[in-house]
Amino acid sequence: MDNPKINFFLPLLYLAWSDDLLTQKEFTVLQAFIHTQNWLSEAEKIDLLSKIDIASPPSRMELSQWKSAIDQKVLREHKSIFDISSAFYKNDSGDFELQFLKLENDLGILGAEAFGIFRPKTDTFTSKYQTEVRFDVQKLTAILDGQQAPIINKVKAIISRQEFQYETSTDIDVYRGKVYDWCKILADENLGNMAYPKKYGGGENIADYFAVMETLSYHDLSLVIKFGVQFGLWGMSIFSLGTEKHYAKYLKDVGSLQLPGCFAMTETHHGSNVKGLETTATYNHSNQTFTIHTPNPDAQKEYIGNAAMHGQMATVFAKLIIDGTDYGVNAFIVPLRDENMKTLRGITIGDCGQKTGLNGVDNGTIRFDNVSIPKENMLDRFASVNDNGEFESLIPSDNRRFFTMLGTLVGGRIGIPRSALAAAKSGLTIAIRYADQRRQFGPEGGSEVPILNYRMHQRRLLPLLAKSFAVHFGLQYLTQRYINKKDNEAQEIEALAAGMKSYATWHVRDTLQECREACGGKGYLSENRIGSLKNDTEIYTTFEGDNTVLMQLVAKNRLSEFRKQFGEMNALGIINYVFESAKTSISEKNPIATRRTDEIHLLSSEFHHEAFVYREKTILASAAKRLKSLIDSGLDSYDSFNVAQHQMLDVAQAYLERVVLEQFQLEVKNTDDLQCKAVLEKLHNLYALTQIEKNKGWFLEDGYMEAPKTKAIRKLVSQLCWDLRPDAVALTDAFAIPESCLAAPIAVRQL
Amino acid sequence: MDNPKINFFLPLLYLAWSDDLLTQKEFTVLQAFIHTQNWLSEAEKIDLLSKIDIASPPSRMELSQWKSAIDQKVLREHKSIFDISSAFYKNDSGDFELQFLKLENDLGILGAEAFGIFRPKTDTFTSKYQTEVRFDVQKLTAILDGQQAPIINKVKAIISRQEFQYETSTDIDVYRGKVYDWCKILADENLGNMAYPKKYGGGENIADYFAVMETLSYHDLSLVIKFGVQFGLWGMSIFSLGTEKHYAKYLKDVGSLQLPGCFAMTETHHGSNVKGLETTATYNHSNQTFTIHTPNPDAQKEYIGNAAMHGQMATVFAKLIIDGTDYGVNAFIVPLRDENMKTLRGITIGDCGQKTGLNGVDNGTIRFDNVSIPKENMLDRFASVNDNGEFESLIPSDNRRFFTMLGTLVGGRIGIPRSALAAAKSGLTIAIRYADQRRQFGPEGGSEVPILNYRMHQRRLLPLLAKSFAVHFGLQYLTQRYINKKDNEAQEIEALAAGMKSYATWHVRDTLQECREACGGKGYLSENRIGSLKNDTEIYTTFEGDNTVLMQLVAKNRLSEFRKQFGEMNALGIINYVFESAKTSISEKNPIATRRTDEIHLLSSEFHHEAFVYREKTILASAAKRLKSLIDSGLDSYDSFNVAQHQMLDVAQAYLERVVLEQFQLEVKNTDDLQCKAVLEKLHNLYALTQIEKNKGWFLEDGYMEAPKTKAIRKLVSQLCWDLRPDAVALTDAFAIPESCLAAPIAVRQL
């Protein structure tokens, strides 16, 4: 340890033995190098070679001593291993430094990287990064809650009570019982009847009803669904499809949970295609009754919430038959159990049993064996049987009438995505708090670093956080449109609701999946709730309509709107015209924009909006053109839609993204508080650019963007994630989820 | 109904009232049109207008009569609504047909599509498509099973026995007990000790051991993990890290499940970064013992399988301390419970409780309060304490020694992805059989169609099926490489295992998610098993190493290999050179290829391979260049890797995709049976093109492909899905999963 020439090699020797990447072959390389060094004496060479004999490694102690010796020589101005070696012994011969670099390279050592092992420790900027509060969290909460803040706070106060402590029993009966009891408390607080007319004891406030659904979703999701089945599906089916006599008879008891009931639409063989329901309601002229009947086992009602345990009645959807003529699907109130909860004659109820989630909801099957109900049990707002036993309706088409009926039930497609999004907010709050506190790995010799400081972790969580804000504003917009809808907007809003339900629930699925993984093993423990949040919302992509099927409905609506917009032109020429004009107008407008990569442009809301609109229009026109050419080529329209199904989904997706973007932009614009505005703007930019990045294949294919631009966008997305990282915890704080509801031990703040 | 001029309008009137898309505004359009028709008398106009009075709709009966009248007029040669109308009354005036088309358009009616409602019904090609058997299923099974067929069949026979009926209790103790009993049966069948040396009662057959893990995964996944913890982690840690004396003392009892044990590595605060473990093993010279101690609550062992109920001993990873010096992490056998299952003094065991899945495994926490163990309990293959109480090891670096130890445990990263893939095969078998039998929607007036005939449903499931075959062959390759590894291949194979574990388990996650949704409500019922398959494998992306962390290890290995490959050049010039040469060589080679869209080219394995290799090389060189320039700019290497983290994942991803593709291509090439070869080739093409489609943004950005080509690939992917649809059921049959294991009612074949 005192020959400087030998010590010249210490850094290399240390690397050779300590680095876990060197192979036997590389030791040979090192030996060969030493042999060729003429400035070393034979004795020195032998000494050195003895230190790289793979059969006789240095002792661990020796290795520690080398490291100490090196540490004493390293200076702040050193830039390479060669610099350190030269601090032991200076070899000035001509190409020696180059030879040395070649050796390093042959050993697979990346100079500057390996050098880091010896560099005096300073904090890296990655390790210094941390959470800050750069805006007023309460102000942001106020923006999110809007006018519903009072009811939201009321519900939060209720679900924070001791009696709402989570049920941890895995016994399904215990859990179902607890959920029922919770529902009763909520009914007693007048939350269940929130949407019903005041005349029947209700709150007559639909906006508040949705806010209740959403806020309850910070708590147990079985509770939300049980609540939604009772007060939404069962109660609102009476309100939407029935008439005064039904309201008077039932609504008060439904709203107080005196009369638990079901919404019995889906059958085993008919879920998405409810038009094909097979249950029959046959009119009996003799005694003015209907006979409700399940004609075959696959026509049983299935997945019916409240059926397995608590339901006393159900709104049953069945084909109305009068004198052998089928008048299409109508709705009837059918008693299931008596007041002692004994199942009535002709009714057979099954239990769906254990499910992936929502096990606090008693889903069941219902079969009817010639069950007789009085005539007044037909929910007769849209169709009725008159005193002569004749069918009457203002809507002559069975098809149209049925879809009009379904249209009145569209509220479910608002409550569900809002509930889902609340679950995603819980997941993000838990995962982001954990990522802010959990430390793992760090710079060589430094302390460990919060995992939220890692770029990939930011990339995994922050775009989902941004999108959650986007979807929040999108759902607020949907709610407002629904509440204030005019007659001629019904179809547009139904399509919007179907689309937003799909868009939001898919987002929630992806978010909770990512949150689980981002929390590692902790995310797998039930106590941290991410698993149940995921499992409970898992079915949200299916119920109120399978997302993929709904997206096709949305696309069909868009295509039909598209045709109407261009109604003044000759039909044959329209599609080509629109298609071509969209293309040319854009490329005329933006000759340079396809390549612009400056931040001012890439962060401008005009650029985002134009890109989203362009994409939406082009995809729509292209799908219309494709369908037309398929049908013109003689294909059946059913086959044609099937061939273009993939494109149909794109049509709907592009439409929804544009709608959501616009709402986010509007929200940023309307925000007065400068700090909130600033952070919302960043979130908006991240949402917008993440979607563009996701769709970059399309934009490049289309020519709307070129490679330098999409590359710049990728970089900017990473940068925005980095910039937002200090705000992440505060942003989830703005969701203001009650701590007792979050409950996850990993989400407990360490002060 | 007898004035032909009036009847001319019947098809339009029918559409107006039956179509559920017309709005009030559109009725006005129709009224205006009628007013302008001079060929109608005033009386006729009044009659017609009365039929489109929104306040007085036709009766449902009337609507039916219109439809019957129309149906009688429609002829096979009719092509439009105008044709049908003209069959009632012919109006020859000049531009009348054009006026009519304009009207249709104003009403938002897409001519040919609306016409479909009246067209005489013929089966559409979508509805006629169905399952066929076009290859010998057993031959394909033989290809998948390879040389392990005998052990696979043995295991299948065992898990098909009555005693392996699934446990449905939600009581965690019952479930854990059942899983233990199953393990005992497997041990009695000599499956547990399969990998151990014959000398200690084992089968000395690692290939068979992995096949056992894989095949068991068709049954309950808690069983697989419990089995893996006992015989793999616990047993193999003794075998890999211990020496003869440990083998003799423990292996037989471990293999027979006489001695249940744990693998206690992970701590609450150290999961991914196991180098930072804090548990200590302090050597006591006086009595030649080690004191195992948990220095703080967050250093407790966590998630340890077999700990909460059944484990009697554990391999504990702890920092070895001798005379105050820390010699890095080593492994020690520590007794936990006595033969009466009483926890020993100084040991505190906690229960991880309910988890998202795998509730049949008793994961727990372990804390050590100065627990004394004899010196011989140190697993001393790589390091030991000699009789003088001095540390001895052939590997001087603590770091390197630890990673060498970890390297011997890499088998877990082979067993886990193979187990996961088996779960995905179960999910796909269930979802594809269901999709083949479940009918929903259909052509107007026709019967409903299997949902697997829908393009989107094919798109959702078939690429995942293709990728499952690809991953299967990739994992076979990994297994072979592992079993036949040479010393200098260790690092490459460790990286391959880490990568394949991530690649496979992410694929499984995506697959089971899609299967759940593809089965709708049925997929949510526990009886159909998709939920538990998903939940049980959910943690596979975390255990044996978090996927995201592992992918970075893979990338670092690739970067280091990359540097070594070009070792003969001057270090400074290499990266730029490689980067540029890769670019130019490709563009020189393929001046036209960037635009080729013919099927011969797009379906050629040469094209696929070149594209995958090009992508891998370019991404690797680009990441190397980026890192170099970040480090050269003065950034700490830790910061640099963080900045480039996103690219690191791409490096690993591109590498794994290329490896998997190559194995799939080799398998196709080596298949003799022509029918099997044909279907494997189609699956291979679907795998290859789906990955290219997924990465099309990158290929377009890079310029390796241009838009016409990526568009042609998208079309071809849809076409391949369609082509493979008839084979889908047979392809899942080739997995040959025992029916009693599949168990899902929706997967029962309807004969």
UniProtKB/TrEMBL annotation, chains A, B:
Transmembrane segment boundaries: none
Top-tier EC class: oxidoreductase
Chain ranges of the Acyl-CoA oxidase C-alpha1 domain: 407-556
Residue ranges occupied by any Acyl-CoA oxidase C-terminal domain in the UniProt entry: 610-747
Family: Belongs to the acyl-CoA oxidase family.
EC number(s) reported in the record: 1.3.3.6
Listed name of the protein: acyl-CoA oxidase
Domain Acyl-CoA dehydrogenase/oxidase N-terminal: 182-254
Subcellular location: Peroxisome
Primary location group: other
Cofactor field: FAD
A Pfam family hit: Acyl-CoA_dh_M
Acyl-CoA oxidase/dehydrogenase middle domain ranges (all copies): 262-371
Keywords, in A-Z order: FAD, Fatty acid metabolism, Flavoprotein, Lipid metabolism, Oxidoreductase, Peroxisome
GO biological processes: fatty acid beta-oxidation using acyl-CoA oxidase; lipid homeostasis
GO molecular function, one term: FAD binding
